[in-house]
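Morning - guanosine-5'-monophosphate inputs below, output right after.
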Amino acid sequence: MTVGPNSDRGQLVVVAGPSGVGKSTVVRRIVELDPEVHLSVSATTRTKREGEVDGIDYFFMNADDFAKLREEGGFLESAQFAGNSYGTPKREVEQRLDQGQIVLLEIELQGVRQVKAALPEAMTVFVAPPSWDVLRERLSGRGTEDEATIARRLEVAKTELAAQSEFDQVVVNDSVDDAARAIIALVCDT
Ligand code: 5GP
């Protein structure tokens, strides 16, 4: 994927969608298919899940360090989600955009709104589940969260699904490969 000849600045692509829809798998697939795309690593205060690696999946931080970085203006956007803080470290995103690269963010809805307000040229893509039942099954079947957390995430998912009309593009995640290729095609078309 390359950015058009007239744009010196890179392109910011923001992918969002309800918890359990498979956004992170789709986003990882995009990077596999097109290694020129840079996936921004977010910071979070949530506990590391099994298999997650600091600096690759997230920068895992304690609440004090997160708050300090936010006060210093170190985040492009930040939000609370299901009891934890998440944020996009600003410096690397800006440097890569300045170098003309394509930068991908995978974030939740409040963050999308902040990014769109700050950088209206960002392309926002909503990854939708094939149906509500599929989403519920995926979220319960993941086995990484307890019942209360799943219930909380499903509540948030309802709000997120209702916001899909705010996005520039909607891609249904029927198949990870198809969804990843559809997003790459959208970026190439702009
Ligand atoms: P999880 O805890 O399942 O990894 O992520 C929970 C939610 O936080 C997901 O919807 C994910 O997209 C979102 N998220 C991850 N990183 C960021 C970030 O930097 N900013 C915002 N606003 N949301 C994020």
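Note: The longest strand covers residues 75-81.

O.
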